[in-house]
Every structure is written in structure tokens, then in C-alpha cells.
Amino acid sequence: MTDGLRKGLTAYGDAGFSLFLRKAFIKAAGYSDDALDRPIVGITNTYSDYNPCHGNVPQILEAVKRGVMLSGAMPFVFPTISIAESFAHPTSMYLRNLMAMETEEMIRAQPMDAVVVIGGCDKTLPAQIMAAVSADLPTVVIPVGPMVVGHHKGEVLGACTDCRRLWAKYRAGEMDDSEIEAVNGRLAPSVGTCMVMGTASTMACITEALGLSLPMSATIPAPHAERFRSAEASGRVAAELAKAKGPKPSELLTPAAFKNAQVVLQAIGGSTNGLVHLTAIAGRTPHKIDLDAFDRIGHEVPVLVDLKPSGEHYMEHFHHAGGVPKLMKQLGDLIDLDCRSITGQSLREIVAAAEDVPGQDVIRARDDAIKPEGGLAVLRGNLAPRGAVIKHSAASPKLLQHTGRAVVFESVEDMTRRVDDPDLDVSADDVLVLRNAGPKGAPGMPEAGYLPIPKKLARGGTKDMVRISDARMSGTAFGTIVLHITPESAVGGPLALVQTGDMIRLDVERRSIDLLVDQSELDRRRAALKPATTPDWAERGYAHLFHETILQADDGCDFDFMRRKGKG
Ligand code: FES
Ligand code: MG
């Protein structure tokens, strides 16, 4: 006898009557007593017409339900909100915590013995995992999987690294209107998530490394039959977790598991956003992602996966080369193989079963790494006392040590208005500075950190410049771009003090980012700053909650009251 519908009974009178009522109502949907007297697996439905990345969710749901029933449990699908990168205003990040809160409460509110959460498009996987970790029911995570690649004039391409690259070509006048239109129909040729190592792929790989999803589930292309077989198997695992009452996320997410996730994040040349989301997930547990420890991991861990934007290939090639199990095998002693997975296996067993694919060149050996160090570095200095991040694997090596003159944009709107102005006083050696684009200031830390190269410089052949901000950047972008400067300017971080003409020094080797202005002058500028007031947009509703409680990037941009009790 399992908990099933009995779980969480609150008395409408006595417990017996509560169950009687509950059964009477669910039977309205045609269920028999035999169907109901079983362990129950809740499944989140994150389908939305606005979210083509989740376009295969209906088929995934069918497969999960099949797997749950084949293992003798009962599936119940329930909706949660869905967030798509391209359609979420003002930013998808603004909504991530809303989705996490909503999903957590629906897991708590409804009777279930285990839960399957389905996510993929950048914010949905972290939101669903944050929810599941806080609710702490036995959980299986299913990423929806990457799109298949596109083709254009014999070239393989994909969203959205090539979106940016080809748009830059168009801006520079190297591609005409009809060709860019053709490209527009080829960059995202199927449902599924962006198929480069952007945030969606990064989070899927991290999830697998944490042991929260099935082996290989990060990389199976969204439209493939294998994706649905994996979903069916996930349903079976969820049913077994429901019967065994575990393991729960709190049993799997050990410090060693979080270390493994950070090693994988570095080795895949993962998205800078992955660090923010992993920090938020850890914030829901007794553990913590320490930026300096993460940077040290980066010194030891080479980039082994040859995927855009750091390398050449796409997610489906990573999959056919052996996926995350093969990567963890190549990482050897950098991974703690005693960590466990929802399947009941240790990572040692998972890695032992990794496929060897002769001749593959996507997942490299450690002595044949793409980059000798990990993809991400943490910078500090008088501009970023609580840290900043750079994806140096996707930057121009010659700019990693650079001192240049600041050209400051006050906000995303200011940048949009002026960056292409032919009269803008800017040269290729300058440092473009964007502020008021952080978690609170924008709001929601938009992916505006990838400032466009001013048109007049792009036309003259400039491909990259040092760009710094308190914003985020798409994981699919390439450039020498310093992000997540913390504290952000809107809460009085030193970024608020920079003026056009100041000199800024970036030294990635020394992990530093500094404003070369005397302290006395900085003090004078600070004294002249206007005190922060509540902006109009934050006067009511979710916006108010967001504005009042959003944490900085080094705390994962969670809401202060959503973190585990007792934290900071
Ligand atoms: Fe959804 Fe890229 S837009 S994953
Ligand atoms: Mg993205």
C-alpha cells in the first residue's frame, strides 16, 4: 500500500472523508479505484505555443506516462508556466523565479509521491530544478533536447551562435537582404533547444552531471525517437522512485555532486548563465557555489568538448560521440565517480557504460584538449568587488590583456540609441561599458552584455572589442565580454562610477578588472550619485516582489526569501 492519493490529506472533517471526497472528484475524470490506489507520479507540462523549444513536450508527456504505467504507478500531468527566450518580456530571467515558485507550490499542493519535471529553454530547466530541490520529492528531470542542425550553402549552422555571426555579416554589408531571409528559415530547423553550447545545453549537461536526469538525456536531439524512449525510461525511473520513496534531490545533491557539475560546466565551455543558475540551485540546498573555488576548478579543468561557440560542432555531434557519460570518462579523476544518479547507479557505473566511438573528435582526451583551461573565469578588482565572469574560451586571445578607454552607455536603451551613431566617439581599442542592466536595474539582467560592435567599426572590419557590463549574455555568443559585474550599478556598484574617457584594465591571466581612477576621485563621484528610489515599474505586483527581493548574480539572482532558510 502506497501513499498515492492519501498524501497531503488535509481534513475536510476527518482523513477518511477527505480521501472519500478526493476520490469522488478525481473519478469524475474516469479513473477506477485500481488506477488510483497506486503510487502517483506528477509530471509538469511546460508546453506553450509561445515556446517552440518545448514543441516536443506533448510527445514527451505521452512517453513518460507510458513509462510510469508500465511500472505500475499512475501518472498525473499538471501545467506550469513556460518561458521562451525570444518571447519573454522584459527578460526571461525576470520570470525564472516566478516559474520556480509556481512549480514548487504546485508540487507541494497536489498529491504525488514523485515528480517528473520537464524543461529545456534556458530558464525552464533551472526553474524546475530549483522548485524540485526545494519541494524535495523524489524527482526525475527531463530536458526536452536540442534541435537538429541547419544547413546553408553547404555550411552547417545553428541557433544561435550563427544567428549572431551571420547577422554581424549582414550588418557589415557582407550579406544581402534575400540571403539573410533564407538564413532566417534555416537557423532553427526543428523543435528543441538551441543546439550549440548555450544555456539550454549547458543546463542539460549540468543536470546529467548532478545525477538528476537519465544518462545521455542532455544530448539526444529533440525530434529523435531516442528522445521519447528516454522519456519512457524516465517515467519508469520515476515510478520506482515513488515506490522506494527516494532518493530525493537532497540525497543526491552533495558537495561532490556540485563539484562535478562545476567541472562539467568548465569542460563543456558552458554558458556563463549556467554559473548563475547552478548558484541558485545550490542556494536551495545547504551547499554553496563559491566563485573563487569555481575559478580554481577552471584552472585545472580543460575544455574537452568541441562545440560552438568555443569550438566547431553541435549538440547532436556531441550526442553521437558518447554524450556526457563519455565526457565524464575523459575527465577521469576530475570527476567524483562515487556520486549517485536517480537511476540508482553510481557515476562510476554510468561512465563504465559510456560508448567508445572510434574516430570521433567532439569529446577530446585530456592530452588533446580544445583549451588547456576551463571555459569560464571569475574576475575581481575595484570594478567588481563581488566578482565578474568572462567566457575566455569564446574570446579573442589578443584582448584577454587589454587596457582601453571607457565608452559608457547608461542603459540598454541608451546603448541601442547611440551605438550605431556615426558621430559616436569610439575606436576599436576602447572598452564599451553598459550599466543599469543588472538583476535589479534592468530589471532581470537581460542578455545585453553582448554589446554590438558599433556599425562604423564593424564596417571597418572590427570583429571583437572588450565589452563590460552588469548584464548577462547568451551562452551562444562569442567575444571578449565581461559579464555579471557585481554588485550591479543600480545598487551602487562601482560600475555606476565609470565615466567615458576613464581607463579600464582587463587582465584575465591575473583574473582582474580595474578602473584606473584614483580612489579620491571615485569617492567624489560616489558622493554625487543620486540615491536609489523605487522605479514606477516596481510599484505593484510581481514586479514589486522582484524589485524588493532579487539577489545579485553571486547569489544566483534568486529571491532572498526563496533560498534555504539560514542562508546569508
Ligand atoms: Fe529556447 Fe535557445 S531559445 S533554448
Ligand atoms: Mg540562450
Automatic annotation (TrEMBL):
In terms of Gene3D superfamilies, this protein maps to: IlvD/EDD C-terminal domain-like
Query: Which keywords annotate this record?
Result: Iron, Iron-sulfur, Lyase, Metal-binding
Please give the InterPro entries that the UniProt record associates with this protein. Answer: Dihydro-acid_dehy_C, DiOHA_6PGluconate_deHydtase_CS, ILV_EDD_C, ILV_EDD_N, IlvD/EDD_N, Sugar_Degrad_Dehydratases
Q: Which Pfam families match?
A: ILV_EDD_C (PF24877), ILVD_EDD_N (PF00920)
**What are the residue boundaries of the Dihydroxy-acid/6-phosphogluconate dehydratase C-terminal domain, all occurrences included?**
361-557
Family per similarity comment: Belongs to the IlvD/Edd family.
Q: What is this protein called?
A: Dihydroxy-acid dehydratase
